Amino acid sequence: MRPNLRRTWTTLAAAGILSATAVVAAGQQPGTSAKDTYRDIEATLGIVPGFLKAFPEAGIAGAWGEFKAVQLDPHTALSGKEKQLIGLAVSAQIPCAYCIYFHTAAARANGATDEEVREAVAMAAITRHWSTVLNGMSVDLPTFRKETDTVLRMAAEKANTATPTQ
Asked: Is the dihedral of CA 66, 13, 103, 55 positive or negative?
């Protein structure tokens, strides 16, 4: 990997670490200029990474607002670690080497263990496998939903009646 690209991704991973304590402003308002957006990106990340500079200026305010509001905001429903593990799982299936690098580094920066990283990738593989089987075999969706609901109901009932082991 080129040194400048590695530094860019490392900076973004560091931003992921800081997301736990950062105060994130609301997303960019419509009509925000590209110049103002680049200033905000630099204030947030320390640099304006090349991939954000490559984005069309007409859309950079919206793209950055989305990135900042969902990916970097520590006050959303998912933790930074959970967001990055999801990002890694999706990246592994797209596949996208850039995204895999970023989300792995950011997940680790947010406290993910090697085992959690491996499990996220395995879950992506398992999901892809069964999606292929279900779609390829044209399994009836209403029947699948009914069976899934039954299995989950029965598992909950079993968990509620299980005796705790000591």
From this structure: positive
Do the beta carbons of residue 100 and residue 92 sit within 8 Å? yes
Does position 73 have pLDDT exceeding 60, yes or no?
yes
Alpha carbons within 13 angstroms on the beta-carbon side of residue 48 total 16
Q: Which residues of 69-83 are buried (b: 16+ CB within 10 A; e: fewer)?
A: bebbbbeeeeebbbb
Separation of CA 100 from chain center: 10
CB atoms within 10 A of CB 47: 14
pLDDT tens, residue by residue, 77-118: 999 999 999 999 999 999 999 999 999 999 999 999 999 999
Q: What is the DSSP string of 98-121?
A: HHHHHHHHHHHHTT--HHHHHHHH
CA–chain centroid gap for 135, Å, is 25
pTM of the model: 0.75
